[in-house]
Structure formats: structure tokens, C-alpha cells
Amino acid sequence: MRNYHKSSKGRGKRKKYPRIKPAADPKLKKAFSEIGIPEQKPFQPDSYQLEAIAAIEQADCLVTAPTGAGKTWIAEKAIAEIRKKGGKAWYASPLKALSNAIYAGFSARFGRENTGILTGDRKENPDAPVIVGTTEILRNHLYDAMEQANDLATDLVILDEAHFLGDEDRGVVWEEVMIYLPPRIPLLMLSATIGNAHQIADWLQSVRGRECRVVEEKNRPVPLYPLFFHPTGTLLPLVVQGGSKKKAIIYKKVVSYLQNKKKGFAAQAGQLSQMGDVIRVLRQFHLLPAIFFMKSRADCNNALSFCTSRSLSDDPDRKARLSRRITELTEWSPHLSRHKQNWHLANLAVGAHHSGQLPAWKIVIETLMTEGLLDAVFATSTVAAGVNFPARTVVLLNSDRFNGVAFQPLTPTEFHQMTGRAGRRGMDKIGFALALPGRFMDLRLMARLIHSFPSHVHSQIKINFSMVLNLLLSHTPGQIKLLLEKSFATYLIARHGTEKRLNRSDEGQTHLWQDFRQHLIFLKENGYVNENDELTEDGKWASRLRVDQPILLAEGFRIGIFPVSDPALLAGIVASFVEDRENVDENIGRIKIPKHLLTLGLRVKKELHPFIKRLTSRGFSARPIYLRPAAAIYAWANGESWDDVLRRFEMSDGDFAKLILRTADHLRHIDNLSEVFPELSETSRESIEFILKEPVISYMGG
Q: 64: phi > 0 → left, psi -120 to 50 → alpha, else beta; which?
């Protein structure tokens, strides 16, 4: 494991690299002979796809299949069958970008008038029979349905990327949906391959009271061939082909490289100067287009500047075609049309894709790659999860991945998600995964991951104030205890106890119940719940704040610290309540904060301090209230230019866009409190208009 902030900068004597000369080991002749476009045939669904459609007609269904295997077709077919009967469908995905892409596809398939989208940022045709949205929005709809004692207005729910059930930060939302969803509504779950699919199905069957069938597809739609890039430029097989399916044997020439104490690196930490040469080798052997998975945003951007060894000047027709498409995709946005990476796209056919970029710019990159107009994209591993632009080859520079806190070795699921982008269904007969040697590349681990079993998914359910407030809208504590007994965590512990002939089934229930009780007691002590375990009036409106720190925001409303007549000031202060790992630097000494914003920000901190102290004394976490993001949002709301805000507050396009969108989402929840805080609600609507403007509004289809 390595520290994220201590990568080598290549100081001291610079290592001399061997001259890269494109070459390929003779063992690759057969694999390379398979490169090509498969014969175009009428679409025929795979047997697993037909099995899934048959299953969802009679039961819940969990589909696990490799990335790119055609799971979306199952969703479309299942929705079409529901629509034939006059029914409605809800499709939930973890990412707004993925929701936007699915919405576009479903609009074409089912008609724009029959399709709606709900992601927080976009709300279009919300009463349509086919709704696409994020999983959090679906969970919120379930809260509302339970409160109003109504059934959710749908006849089918599809949970895409269902393995997010095991996501540390967001898995609780997937688990809540699975527990709260009325049993009458069939549940179709689409997932990458996971190791304990039958265990999840058994749990769902026990809590929903209806059969849950597992449909597994283990074969990739396009075969994968793992390669190794020798520092000389020679391509080698990474493992012996035709060997054991259970144990990958590293190819002898790769073993020789590993045993050489003076071996060179093709991807020296901090040195990206050979990326252009790597692309040259891939081009020589018809292995483009490629996705390069890099360790950081900075590496993705820097890699572009090392691809100048070949421009498109020798192919004027292709250059003209690419330039024309770039213009079509960016001409509506002055910011995109003058993007600093436009030159690399138009002249080198390479792009960078990571979370530090505007969502709209990432869509440009995804579109160009999907249409086959780019040779390479340098991306962080987030591309592997849910974004669909496969390539002929994926290039791996590291065998570990940054999880937000530290670098950890790739898990089987992460590895297979990344390599799942190799080989375009219907466009490639074979895909390739190329490992580049470097300081943070463990080739033996990579070889093991090729035939490794998928990772297991574990419960991530945890109690929070938003969950407690929303459940108390429609349930007594006794009924909530029964709900918590349905958790996947409780099921796993009970199963573990059964396997060991021990009675441990109460362990998970006890932990969750005790945590719930602690939250309930705190809410009682602070006037959000009465002695009868019912929400007070304050508790009822606070439940509508389905945001990062609902109880802290609610307390701010109660003591009247939010400005009701200044939309820009309100937007700024609300931004200080947004949880964001990228904006935790509170060094405000170098930036000039308007006096009235600073005065209000310090007042907010002072007046909420006693409440925060009560929270932390009871063991609850309370994120600090940061003024730096408040100042950035305030400057943007007051008309400061995009580039000036980024420069002054040292933020990336993507981080600032995310802060704006999340602040707008918080403001929408404030707007929902119009009956209690009419002036604040009206001001919040104005605040949203102040901050949702180009280039951010483009993400919303504007």
C-alpha cells in the first residue's frame, strides 16, 4: 500500500530508458490474427438474456454478467413487456451521467413522451410510464410512499449496478430500496459478476417473500487476451495461454524480466514521457483505440502532452471528420469550444477523462470514443464503473487503486470492471489488457486476477438521522426494529452463526437497533421527536431535508441563521454544509472573503457550535462548516467568471461543478419547505438560478 501524496517525482539522476522499438513475441501471432471486425449478423439475444426475461415474468431476478455483456438489453426488453400490459417501470442507476445516457436511449426506444428522468439536477416528464433516475431518488420516492400510505406508482423496478449494495458510502441506499420496495413490484437487478449472488438472492427471498432467481453469465462477449509491455517496446503474452483456468502461469519471458535486477520501467512513477511511444506500438499492431487507466487526474492531463510524436496531419480526411464532430458537440458552449484540451482532441485524437472535468466535457470525450474517433483516452478508474465507452485495448499502469483515503490492491471486481472495457461487442473479435511495468505494478497480482473469482458483496447498512426521521414518518420504533431485522447485515451474521452452529442471529439486529435508539434519543432531547416516539412538527419538516447533514441544516433553520433576502449569500452559506472530500482546505488566508459573508459564516459557526458539541459528545460525527466553498459559490453567484473563480480558489472544473450541483440539490430541499419557511423557500429558488448557469447548466441538458 502506498501513500497518495508521496509519489516519486523522478528527482536525482534520471533513468535512461532503452529505445522503444515496436515488436511482438511470436507467441502473439495467433492472437493478433484474430483482430478484426466480426461478421455483422442480425441481433440474437444470448441464452442468459432470454433466461432473465423469463425469470422476471415470475419472480425477482438478479443478473450477474461481465461488463459489456448486454445487461441493458434485458432492461429494455423487460420494460417493453411491462409496457405491453399498460404498466410502468422505474430504472435506477448510481451515476447521473449513466442515468442521462440511459434516458437518451430509452427516449429513442419508448418515445420521449413516455420517458422521464429524475436525478436531482434534471426533472423531466416525472409522470411518464418509464422513469430513469438515481437510486437515491428512488429511495426518496419510497420514503414518500410509506409516509402517505401509498403504493409506489410502478410495476417494475430495475436496479442497475446492483453490486453497489457493497459500496461503503452509498450501499445503504441500495439496501434500503431492496427492503422498502413493496413485494408486489418485481425487482430486476443488473450487476457485474459477484461472488455471493445466490446469498443475496436468498436474503431477498427471505425479506420480500417472493422467489429471487439468479441468472449468471460468466463468459465475456469478446475474449480477453492479457499482454505485457516490455520496456524495449516488445509486446509479450502476460500469461501462458491454454494453461490452467484456475491458476495463471506467467509467461517465461515476463518471468525473466521480473528476475532481472536492472529491469527498466515503461511507466516510471512521475514519468509519462513514453506514453506517445506506447501508443505508437499499439498502433503498429492494430491495438487502438485504447483506454489508459492512470493513477491520478494530473497524470491523465499530463499524458496528453506526451502524445505529440504523431499528429493527424498525415490523414487530412480523418482530421477534418474529427474536427467537424468536435465542433458539433461543443459549439453551443463557449466554455467547451475553447477548452484547453481541444487541441489534443482535434490534432492527436487523444483525450483525458476524470472527475476533475466538467460533466459536459466528459460527455464530449465519451461520445467521440464511442463513435470510434479517438485513438486513446487517459482516464482514472472511475471510467470502469458505469460509463460505457469500450476500446480494443485497456492499458493498466498500476495494480492498485486510490479508494479516497489510500491506495489498495485492485480487487477482482475492480480488475474485471476495468478489463471489461477491452473489446467492443460487435466491433471486435478480441480485446486486450496490457500491463505496463512500473513501480506500482505488481505483475504477479495481475496474473492472479485474470482467473480470480469475483469479490463478495457485503452489507454497508448504517443508521443516519435522515433514515430515522423518514422511517418515523410512517413507522413506530417497533415496526422499524422489524425492518432492521430484514437487513442484509443481520442475514449474513445469522447465516454465519448457523454455519458455525452458534446462535449469533441477534448480533446484527442488536447493533443496528442500538444505533437507531441512540439517534432516536438524541432527536427526542432536541425536540424533533416527542415522548410518544412520534415526529414533532420540526421533525416532520426536517425529514424533508434528505441532504448531507440534515439535522445540522435543520438546526440552522430553527435558530434563524440563514439569510432570507440575499440569494447569493444563501447559496454561499448552504455550500458550507455540503460534504465534499475535495473541498476540505479551509486555508482562507490567501483569499479575500467579502466582509458580510465572513461575518455571517462566523456567526453560523458560533451559533451552531453548542449543537455540534452535543452531537459529538454523543458519538455522532459532525463535519466542520467550511467557508472556502461558501466564498467560491458566493463569488460565482455574484457574477465572477468561471475561470477567475477556479484560479482564485484553486479548484478544478469538475470539483467546482460538483460543488455547485450539490449546493443546488441542497437548495431544492430547502425549497420543499415552502409551507414552513416561505421566504427562505422563495430565496432558495432564486439562489438556484444564480448558480446553475453555463458551463454547469449544460450538464442538465440545457
A: beta
11 located within any domain: no
For residues 652 and 473, what is the distance between their CA atoms, to the nearest angstrom?
Answer: 40
Are 347 and 254 contained in the same domain? yes
Task: Give the CA distances from residue 66 to residues 223, 371, 416, 565, 594, in Å, rounded to whole numbers and listed in that order.
Answer: 11, 22, 8, 53, 53
Whether the CB-CB separation of 24 and 286 falls below 8 Å is answered with no
CB 157 within 8 A of CB 138: yes
The alpha-helical segments, DSSP class H, found in 547-627 are: 550-558, 567-575, 595-617
**Closest Cα to residue 645, out of 654, 637, 635, 630?**
635
How far is 685 from 332, CA to CA, in rounded Å?
26
Longest dimension (CA), the chain: 78
pLDDT single digits (tens) 323-336:
999 999 999 888 89
From 492, 518, 535, the end of a domain falls on 535
In whole numbers, what is the pLDDT of the chain averaged over residues? Answer: 89
Q: 443-487: per-residue pLDDT in tens?
A: 999 999 998 988 899 999 999 999 999 999 999 999 999 999 999
Domain contains 5 = no
> Which three-class secondary structure state does DSSP give residue 215?
strand
Confirm if 374 and 349 have CB atoms less than 8 A apart: yes
For residue 684, the Cα-to-chain-centroid distance in whole angstroms is: 28
Tens digit of each residue's pLDDT (9 = 90 or more) over 647-685: 999 999 999 999 999 999 999 999 999 999 999 999 999
pLDDT at 274: 80
Strand 60-64 to strand 23-24: parallel, antiparallel, or no bridges (unpaired)?
Answer: unpaired
CA-nearest of 686, 691, 657 to 671 is 686
Beta bridge partners of 228: 236, 435
Q: What's 472's DSSP letter?
A: H
Together in a domain, 258 and 363: yes
Contacts of 597 (CB under 8 A, 6+ apart): 569, 572, 573, 627, 630, 631, 634
Q: Is residue 691 part of a domain?
A: yes
> Long-range contacts for 540-546 (Cβ within 8 Å, ≥24 apart)?
540/473, 541/673, 541/675, 541/676, 542/469, 543/143, 543/466, 543/469, 543/470, 543/472, 543/473, 544/669, 544/672, 544/673, 545/466, 545/669, 545/670, 545/673, 546/136, 546/140, 546/143, 546/466, 546/470, 546/669
**Grid coordinates of 305:** 502532452
Tell me the residue ranges of DSSP E strands in 312-406.
350-353, 376-379, 393-396, 400-402
User: Are residues 475 and 403 part of one domain?
Assistant: no
Domain boundary among 426, 450, 474: 450
- Is the same domain home to 664 and 580? yes
Is the model's pLDDT at 2 over the cut of 70? no
